[in-house]
# Entry
Amino acid sequence: MADQIILHVDMDAFYASVEIRDNPELAGKPLIIGSLPTERGVVATASYEARKYGVHSGMNIKEAYRLCPRGIYMHPNFDKYRAVSNQLHGIWNDYATAAESIALDEAYLDITETAGDWAGAREIAQTIKRRTREEVHLTCSVGIAYSKTAAKTASEEKKPDGYFEIRTPEEFVDLIIDRDVRALYTVGARTAEKLKRVGIATVRDVRDRQDEVVRLLGKHGTHITRMAYGIDDRKVVPYDPLDTKSISRELTFQEDVSDFGLLDDVLFLLAMSVERRAKRKGLHGRGVTLKVTYADMKNITRSRIVVSSDSAATIWQEARDLLGQIEKRPVRLIGAGVYNLTGDDGWQMSLEDYLEESIDEKQQIIDDKLAELGERYHLDFAGNLDKIFSGTTLYRTAEYMRKHR
# Structure
């Protein structure tokens, strides 16, 4: 049996492909998901036909329209994409002893035991591709490799509808040695810019000047130099609610609360606190958690993967949805949090992140809720938000709300 066989599966132009599947008239046409040309914003996902015109993710929507004026521009449908994602992950997880969901359309699978050897791994990869095509009517690209980094590189190698394998560190290095430094895991735009300022532009440069990379980037530089030699010992790690790689805020009421309307209001303040903590640390999340302790001390935790949990509005909306699904009886503690965290360098923008209009809508949700709370509890939030979320002030605010609901 191989020491480790990791499979990385990634859907091909996921959002656009779902829309094409559901409306065959879009097939073969340049489809651009994101803002409309008359709006402010950028491109989230483009079909492969649109990419031929030079349109790509993150591009300003005005520039995309200049390049592709006859393209079809559409807003996203997040509910649809989440439903399809659940179906996809259900298929993929059948073949793994451990599955790590990275996004709605992407996952790492540990297939070491289920595959047994590389021949078995190839069979699993082809089965996943076939089932994804037959059951969901979409295509995916799959890579199998000895490590997570190599598996992700492999899945990108033959897109769309591709398959590739990298069995050893030597094969990985041979493949990427003369590629841009961003081919290495955790090297994002900012890190790449730092390296290129001193003339380190390729993976070969990292290997040739590894002492300089370490001096420039410290511990991160050591990690990058190991990657340049194909060394990546990371395991596939399913999300654990007890995972410390999360940010949360919770509070215990002086008296048990049966009013779920009050709990919803407090949840909003907790969501704002979590957002601020995450931003201070430069972290972004892909999941939201709700924690509740009932009066009888029974604890429950609910969580879900979301497109983006980077906004207080999203954290609150997802957590309140989870709150609406639990048993309604007296509560002594409530908490909210985010998980699946990455730093700025490891952050991949979601569709919601690309849309400036969506950001404006989220801010409007926050402003409206703050106004509602101010009127209901006779609180003045203007200019006092920083104070509310510092120290014990949030607790005192929640207690005041409990007494004046």
Remarks:
- Residues 345-349 have pLDDT under 50 and may be disordered.
- Residues 173-228 form a domain with the DNA polymerase; domain 1 fold (CATH 1.10.150.20).
- The two ends are 62 Å apart (CA to CA).
